[in-house]
Amino acid sequence: MMDECFHENDYHVSRRIYSNRVFDQVHERQAQEIQSLRERLSRACRCTDKWAVQKIKGLLPILDWLPKYPVKQWLPGDVVSGVTTGLVCCLQGVAYSLLASVAPVYGLYSAFFPILTYFVLGTSRHISVGPFPVTCLMVGSVVLTLAPDEHFLRPVNITGVNETVADERLMEVDVEAREAQRILVACTMTVLVGLFQVAMGLMQVGFLVRYLSDPLVGGFTTAAAFHVFVSQIKTIVSVPIQNHNGFFSFAYTLIDLGRNINQTNIADLIAGLLTICIVMAVKEINTKFQHKIPVPIPIEVIVTVIASAISHVMDLNSQYGASIVHSLPRGFAPAQTPNIALIGNILGSSFSTAVVGYAVAVSVAKVYAAKYDYTVDGNQELIAFGVSNIFGGCFSSIVASTALSRTAVQESTGGKSQVAGIISALMVMIVILALGPFLQPLQKSVLAGIVIANLKGMFMQISEVPVLWRQNRPDCLIWIATCLASIVLGLDVGLLAGLVFEMGTVVVRTQFPSCATLGNVPNTDIYKNMKDYKNIDEIPGIKIFKCNSPIYFANIDYFKEKLREEVGFDAVRVFKKRNKALKKIHKLIKKGKLQATENGLVPVASLGVENQAFEKEQGPEVEEGASQSDSEVKVQVDWTSELPVSVSVPRVHIHSLVMEFTAVSFLDVVAAKSLKLVVKEFIRIGVSVYIAGCDGELVRRMEALSFFDEEVTRDILFLSVHDAILFIQLETSTRNDEDPLAKKLQDDKEPLPYTEDEDLIETYDIQHLAIYGLSN
C-alpha cells in the first residue's frame, strides 16, 4: 500500500527510534574541551609576530588600507568628494553650533579635529565625521542647564560726564564670560563622551548598541528632530525666549514662542523661510536627478554666500536688527583641559550622548559597508570615535558623530576612502584660517533654516509608523513610546525610558509565550498546532504540548498554567483526590462493605498510593494519607470507571505527555526545579512524561541543574516528537507481554545494538522534504 503513495520526487527514509541516550551511545558524543583559567590566560597572552602585527593593524587600520590605496583609481574621486563635502561640513558645523549653544567658530573646529584621528583609527571608508544635530542638541541642553544666562548677569555701566557708574537696577548678560563657560562645559562633556566610548571599545562591549533597536532609534531621532525644529524656530523668528531644559521643556518653549510671537524680526523670518524653501527644493532636485547630475548642487554653500553678501550690503544688523554671526575669528583656539569639577553634573548625559553618537555612526557605516562589501569593526569604531572626541574636546570641539546627509554627499560625489575625509578637513582648515570673517555678516536665521531643511529625513521616519503597526505592533509601540517620552521628558531621560520600555516588551513576550497542543498530520511525522489546521489528528491517550519560548523564573508559572489548561486537569489535585478516595475504599473494605473481586478491586499495587517521589511542598496531609494507605491492603482502582465512594476524582484521559522543547533555548534554576516537580506530579498519577527536541546545550544545562535523578532519568529525552510518539506506541503495545526489545530500549547500562527488526525501525517516505507515510 505504501508504494502506491510514491511519486517521482519521493525518497525513502529508514532509521531507528532515537531517544537522546540511545543516540549518544550509537553516535559517540565529542568530548567538551574544558580549559582551566590558567590555560585560557596563557593562551590569551601568547604573543607571536603575526599576532602582534594583526593587533597593531586592528588598532591602527590606516596601516592596513593606506599601503594598498589605489591612487589612480580612487584619488580623483576622493579629491572631488573631499572639496564638496568640506564646504558642506563648514556650513553644517557653523549651523549645528547653534544647537550646542556655543559660538559658531567651535562648530568649525568640530568639523576639523575629529576627522584627523578618525582618518588613522576608523574602519569605515565612507562616513563623514563631524557634528550631528541630535548629539549637538544633547550637548546644548547640558550647556544651557549648567551655564544659563542668569548666571552671567552684571550691572549695566552708565557713562556720565566725568565717570562711568554701574546701575544695579539694570542688568545685562556678560556675553564673553558666558561663552567661555559654555564652551568649557561643552568641551568637558565631549572629552567625557570620548572616555566612555574608548572604555566601551576596550572592554569589547560594542554589542550593547544592539539593544538600541531600529524602532527605538527611529522614535528617538524623530523626537530629536522635533526638539531641533523648535530650538531653531525661535532663531528664525528671532524672539526672546527663556531657555528651558528637562521635563516638558518642549511645551514650555512653544508657550514662550506663542507669547512673544509679536516681537518677530521680519528680516530674520523672511531669510529663514526662504532658506528652508530653497534648500529643500534643491535637495529634492539633487535626489531626483542624482544619476544625471555628476555632483550634487552644494545649495547650502550657495545660499550662505548669497545671504552673507546681502546682509553685508544692506547692513541688515543695523538697519533691521537682524541677528548675525558677528564674530568668527581666524585661527585655532589654544588647547584647554576639561573642568573636572563638572564631571559629576554631566555623567549621565555624557553616557547617553556617547551611546547615541556611536549608534548613529555605526548604523550609517554599516549601510555603506554592506553596499561596498567591506566590514566595519564595531569595537574599533568605539575607540576611533572615543579618541576623536577626546582629541577634539581638548581643542574646543563638540561631540563628533556623523550625519547621513553629509555622508551621502561624500559617497555620491565619488568618495572611496577616508582620503576624501582628510581633504574635507583641509577645506575646513582653509575656512578657519582665512575665510571665517567673510561669514560674520551671515544671519543666524539662515543657519537655522539650513538645519531645519536637513531634518526632512528624520521627519520622514514618521511614515514608518503605519508600516510597523501592520508588521509588528510591539515594535510600533516601542517607536511611539520612545518618541513621546523623548519629546516630553527630554532626550536623555526619554532614551532611557524608551530602552526600559523596549526591554519590557521583550520580557512580556517571553513571560507570556505562545503555547499549543500539537496534532499529527495523518501518515506523516509532521506535528502542527491543532488550532491552525483542520485535518490534524490528536493521538489518542497522548498529549503533545509545545512552548515557544525559553523557560525561566518569570514565565514558569504561566507555563504550568497553560499546561494544565491543555491537558485538562491538575495533576496535584488528581493525586490528592485519588488518595482521599483510596482511604475511603480501605475503610469500606475493613468494614466489609466493599469486597475486592475480579470484577472490581484486586489486591495489587496502587498507582496513587506508592509515591516515593512525593514532594514535601505538597503538604503533610497527603503524606499522612499515603503512609496510612501503604499499611493497608493494596488495591488497584480503575479511575476511568465509576467509583464506589462519594469522591469526585478528575478524569485523566491521557497516559503520556510529550513536551516539545525545540523553541526552548535555556532553563534557569527556578524553571528547572519547577519543571522537574511537574514531571514527578504527572508520573505519580500514572502519566508518563517525555521531552522532545532538546538542543544539546539545553541538555547539558539540565544536567548541570541536577534535573535528572533516579525517577526523572535521561530516558525521557527524545530527538523529536515523532521518536517519542513511536516509542510510546511501541511501549504501550508491548507492555503486557514484556517485549524483550522494549526492555533493551529501557536498559540504562547496555547500548541498543543495530538491528533491522521492524519494531525498532521507523520507515517513512518524503516528497519535497514533506513526510507522507510510516510503516508499522
Q: Which characteristics define this entry?
A:
776 residues, disordered C terminus, Transcription Regulator spoIIAA
Overall description:
By secondary structure, the chain is an alpha/beta fold. Among the domains are: 80-152 and 172-464, no CATH class; 514-569 and 652-735, Transcription Regulator spoIIAA (2-Layer Sandwich), CATH 3.30.750. 54% of the residues lie in helices and 9% in strands. It has a six-stranded mixed β-sheet with strand order 7-6-8-9-10-11. A three-stranded antiparallel β-sheet has the order 1-12-13, with no helix packed on it. It has a two-stranded antiparallel sheet with strand order 2-5. Strand 3 and strand 4 form a beta hairpin. Helix 5 (71-99) crosses helix 18 (419-435) and helix 8 (133-146) packs across helix 9 (175-202). The protein is elongated, with a radius of gyration of 37 Å.
Annotate the secondary structure layout.
Layout (H helix, E strand, L loop, with lengths): L9 E7 L3 H7 L10 H9 L3 H11 L2 H4 L5 H29 L4 H7 L2 H9 L7 E2 L2 H14 L6 E7 L4 E10 L1 H28 L11 H24 L11 H11 L6 H23 L10 H16 L1 H5 L22 H30 L5 H16 L7 E2 L1 H9 L6 H17 L8 H10 L2 H4 L4 H8 L1 H17 L1 H21 L3 E6 L6 E3 L12 E6 L8 H12 L3 H20 L29 H12 L24 E5 L8 H15 L4 E5 L3 H9 L12 E2 L2 H14 L5 H7 L14 E7 L2 E6 L1
Parallel strand pairs: 8-9, 9-10, 10-11
Antiparallel strand pairs: 1-12, 2-5, 3-4, 6-7, 6-8, 12-13
